[in-house]
Amino acid sequence: MNKHNDWHKDQQYIALVADLLIKPEVSKLENITQHINSNRLEHSIMVSYKSYKIGKKLHLDYRAMARAGLLHDMFYYDWRTTKFSDGSHAYVHPRIALKNAREITKLSKKEEDIIVKHMWGATIAPPRYVESAIVSFVDDQCAIVEAASPYFKQKYQNMKLKLKFN
Ligand SMILES: [Fe+2]
Ligand SMILES: [Fe+2]
């Protein structure tokens, strides 16, 4: 999709998240559709890696951004079909992800805030750290890119058919 697919070649990034990537609780996110054209694992890695790169550039806690970014959507229901009576998906799923993340790793206060506040904008409580705000923005941006990409792909295919080039 873009250069953020290069995460697997980035040894420093891998070193920060390898222990999480090998957990079945994380790898099984691959079986869940997230935004039409992406599964939940791809989405989580994209949010994690993009946040990590921004964090590094700005001399922030890029480790927390990489790890919490990877775990921010660690829930297993389909948000398009599952509805809750005790709160919206935007409110509920960060809390489920936090609980699930706590079960597979030890989280810092900042990592907890990144996960639970990643829907900031749709939910009221503001992030406590700049790292949380950035991961939340990156998450929004990734959702748009992932949802839009099949649309653009289709447009491109149609254009190719029309002009008969390859
Ligand atoms: Fe989310
Ligand atoms: Fe997300």
Describe this structure in words.
There is one protein chain. With 166 residues, the protein is mainly alpha-helical. 61% of the residues lie in helices and 0% in strands. It has 7 helices and no strands. It has helices at 11-21, 24-27, 40-57, 62-71, 89-104, 109-116, 130-163. Helix 3 (40-57) packs antiparallel against helix 4 (62-71), helix 4 (62-71) packs across helix 7 and helix 6 packs across helix 7 (130-163). The longest helix is centred in the last third of the chain and has 34 residues, at 130-163. The two termini are 18 Å apart. The mean pLDDT is 87. The structure holds fe (ii) ion (2 copies).
Rg estimate, integer Å: 17 Å
SS summary, helix count:
7
Largest sheet: none
SS-derived structural category:
mainly alpha
Mean pLDDT: 87
Share of residues in helices: 55-70%
Order of helices and strands: HHHHHHH
The portion of residues forming beta strands comes to under 5%
- Count of β-strands: 0
- The separation of the N and C termini measures 18 Å
The hetero molecules present are: fe (ii) ion
Which residues form runs of ≥5 with pLDDT under 50?
none
Q: How does the overall form come out from the CA principal axes?
A: globular
Strands, helices and their partners?
Blueprint: H1 11-21, H2 24-27, H3 40-57, H4 62-71, H5 89-104, H6 109-116, H7 130-163
Helix pairs in contact: 1-4, 3-4, 3-7, 4-6, 4-7, 6-7
Bound molecules: fe (ii) ion (2 copies).
Residues 43, 47, 72-73, 139 line the site of one fe (ii) ion (FE2).
Summarize the entry for a quick read.
The chain is 61% helix and 0% strand. It has 166 residues and is mainly α.
